[in-house]
Amino acid sequence: MVIAGVGDPGDWFEKLSSLFKKLKDYVQMENPEIDSSEAEKGVIKHRSPVIPDDFRCPISLELMKDPVIVSTGQTYERSCIQKWLDAGHKTCPKTQQTLLHTALTPNYVLKSLIALWCESNGVELPKQSGASRSKKVGSSVSDCDRAAITTLLDKLANGSLEQQRSAAGELRLLAKRNADNRVCIAEAGAIPLLVELLSSTDPRTQEHAVTALLNLSINDINKGTIVNAGAISDIVDVLKNGSMEARENAAATLFSLSVVDENKVAIGAAGAIPALIKLLCDGTPRGKKDAATAIFNLAIYQGNKARAVKAGIVPPLMSLLKDAGGGMVDEALAILAILAGHQEGKVAIGQVDPIPVLIEVIRTGSQRNRENAVAILWSLCTGDSQLLMLAKQFGAEEALKELSESGTDRAKRKAGNILEILHRVDALVNQS
């Protein structure tokens, strides 16, 4: 009655409570032959333990069998809240707040507490209806969730712009929530539809679509499905032309996909690296981190090192390295260390006056940063006596000796190698 009614649900609950009280009074009045003392004994004899309020559904006021959480954080019996939603309501019955989405998340903690309470109080454990919780073989996602996902996919495929935006937003949240949802959404065929929406002219829809794909890509099987759906070029396009949030999440998605080695090649070939460098330069702090992480992973592939150097990555990295307060020193050093192992990268780094800042990092940086800095210095100085002498002028010997004693194993080796080269050069100078 509450669900079917209009107006404030609180008023309906009050009316129903009053109605139940009248019914109880009527029953007692119509059965005067029952001895009150016997009736009281019967009540005492058969009295059930009082159900804690937190275990009752706010709608039915009965012990919950299958508690689920809505977007406001309130918990309801699944069948009750589903009826409420099916009736077209967009608000939380208890708080009257507008629901951000209609996804229902199982409240496993509360369900376990209810089971324990039932066991300790001799109450029969509530049985779930087979229809609402039957599961497909090999899946832990309920049919109810599947039905909701199918509805969302229909909106993606056939809905208005507003419905597509809303559906993509809900799938984004569902995919973020847990691993089961990521499997279920992909199995339902969402990925090709989301890839299509990457080309949407509506910025918010595009943001939802790329972020949903990011969340889905956490699953390794989904990575392959996303790439096979032709998503890489569209994600790169979002990275180039989308809103700042869309660009950030596009960068994060490319990083996620690049975990698979063959994808590193495809992403680099699709023109992602110049767009990532642009985000590294003009992005928000989070955007810069996303871009740097993606570039680092892509640069593991040799062909992408050359692409990054040609796209002009070295000067921005040096700027980030010199800006100690910018929060990007770690990332800049890590990428430069990878590029320094490539001949074109080594030449490009040598042209941006790297020696003073590298020596400073070796002196004062974290262990990881000192290791990367000395690796870069080793690459630059090997075979380049001019840079070697410049390093010596900036006090490299003292810093390297200290590092050879207190650094990581790799840092000690690199520092020792540079010191040996310095000593050989000194010996040659002395002989001449």
Automatic annotation (TrEMBL):
InterPro entries: ARM-like, ARM-type_fold, ARM_PUB, Armadillo, RING-Ubox_PUB, Ubox_domain, Znf_RING/FYVE/PHD. PROSITE patterns: ARM_REPEAT, U_BOX. SMART domains: ARM (SM00185), Ubox (SM00504). Gene3D superfamilies: Leucine-rich Repeat Variant (1.25.10.10), Zinc/RING finger domain, C3HC4 (zinc finger) (3.30.40.10). It comes from Salix suchowensis. Its EC number is 2.3.2.27. This is RING-type E3 ubiquitin transferase. Pathway: Protein modification; protein ubiquitination. It catalyses: S-ubiquitinyl-[E2 ubiquitin-conjugating enzyme]-L-cysteine + [acceptor protein]-L-lysine = [E2 ubiquitin-conjugating enzyme]-L-cysteine + N(6)-ubiquitinyl-[acceptor protein]-L-lysine. The keyword Transferase applies. Keywords: Repeat, Transferase, Ubl conjugation pathway. Pfam families: ARM_PUB, U-box. Residues 50-124 form the U-box domain. ARM repeats lie at residues 189-231, 230-272. The keyword Transferase applies.
